[in-house]
Amino acid sequence: MENLMQVLTDGIVQHETLIRLGAFLGLLILMALWQAVMPRRPPTVDGPARYRRWCSNLLLVVLSTLLVRILLPFSASALALLVETHNAALLGFSLPVLVSVLVLDLLIYLQHRLFHTVPLLWRLHKVHHSDHWLDVSTALRFHPLEILLSMLIKFAAIWLFGIPALAVILFEVILNGMALFNHANIRLPLERWWRQVVVTPDMHRIHHSVHRVEHDSNYGFNLSGWDRLFGTYVAEPVDGQLQMRIGIPEYRAGEVAVLPLLFMPFRRRRKRMS
Fold first, then answer.
1. For site-directed labelling of 183, which of 1, 149, 218, 241 has its Cα 20 to 30 A away?
2. What is the pTM of this model?
């Protein structure tokens, strides 16, 4: 059994790029088709603006990937293999795969809260929240520096807990897929049932509300239990799912071009929503 697990791990690590890229593109296309056929809310942007926005959000992913590849000498899974090979975990032991996935999911929840709490980090994260046309492409709209910082936090967790490479890859695939899913403008059957376990689009949409009390809630990306456990869960938006306003009021005109999005954190600071 150990040999079989090792062969499986080696195969997944060896083909990590293909697996992650295939899962990402497949789910992106699936969610885009789903929201076109069964939208939860009426689309609020049409024509050239929609295509410019999609192109900009996609380009942000490309820039983020390039920045991480250029500035970091190896991937998260490569670091995990290195730590595992040399028994270099700071705690002196390595966590099992499933436990590691849960630890990484909790880490992302806590990191998300941190980016809402620390003003300097919020400057980066507001690029994501400035999108007031919430759909699957919003899951791609993160400032490259935020992605870089997120990767460094992940590196620290891998080194501290000795998280296996298999867990890192599984978590990355799950996280990317769930981000596409819970940002999509889709109508989900039995949504209340699904929400008991995972973060659904209706649950995460509340996190993008213009109201601060809703905007600072529902931080989870994968499991919905973290928000319930730590008291940050909001069940329904005060304005209702169909009437709620999305985004940051100061950017209601919309920022869709790449350069304004890249420079947004460095412009004169604007007051947070109330």
1. 149
2. 0.91
